[in-house]
Amino acid sequence: MVCGGFTCSKNALCALNVVYMLVGLLLIAVAAWGKGFGLVSSIHIIGGVIALGVFLLLIAMVGLPCKNLGNCTSCGDLMLNHATEALKILGGVGLFFSFSEILGVWLAVRYRNQKDPRANPSAFL
């Protein structure tokens, strides 16, 4: 079998995910080391690098296949189902805030066009 077949691609992707896991762990370790020795004083930079390392580590873990290849569902299908549910919920939340924003604009226009009863009646606005 030539390289470039399914087995070769699967092994290459597994190796790439292992490298990404190592890079994620390295990012976390370097950020913690830099903070521990006082090389970096900004907690925002340290937090960002650690968050990036954790995110890369989690994505690399998701990318590794199951050990039992017979009854393993693909991660893509599971992520697609979860994303579909999340997008439905986010769509409802977005609609709610959109309609509340329209209500706020309407109230602002009504308030803007009202005259202040405490103001001088001969004043311009």
TrEMBL record:
- List residues traversing the bilayer: 12-33, 45-66, 87-109
Q: Which domain of life is it from?
A: Eukaryota
Task: Could you list this entry's UniProt keywords, alphabetically sorted.
Answer: Membrane, Transmembrane, Transmembrane helix
Q: What is this protein called?
A: Tetraspanin 31
Q: Which organism is it from?
A: Fundulus heteroclitus (Killifish)
